[in-house]
Fold this protein.
Amino acid sequence: MRENVTETDRSPIVVRADYRYDYVIEVEFDNGVTKLVDVSPWLKGLVFEPLQDKVTFQSFFLDGWTIAWPNGADVAPETLYEAKSGKFNSSSATTTTL
C-alpha cells in the first residue's frame, strides 16, 4: 500500500516559461526554482526537428505542467527541472511572456 504522496514526492511543474535567446528558455517551477534551460540537445527526431527553426521554437506554450509546441512536441517537466542551468546572455536576451 502506498503512503500519502507529499509535495516533495512529485516533480515540480512549470508555471512560467520565457524565451531568452537561441534555444534557451527561462523556466519557473511551482516550487519557486527558476532556471535557464538550453533545449537544443533535445531537438532531434521527427517531432523535435521542426523546432530547430527558431521562429517555430519560439511558439512554445504552457500546457498545464510543462512546455509544449503546436506540433505536439513537449519536454517532461522533470527533464527540464533536472537539466543543468545555462548562463544568462543578457546581450541577446528577448522576453516572450507566456
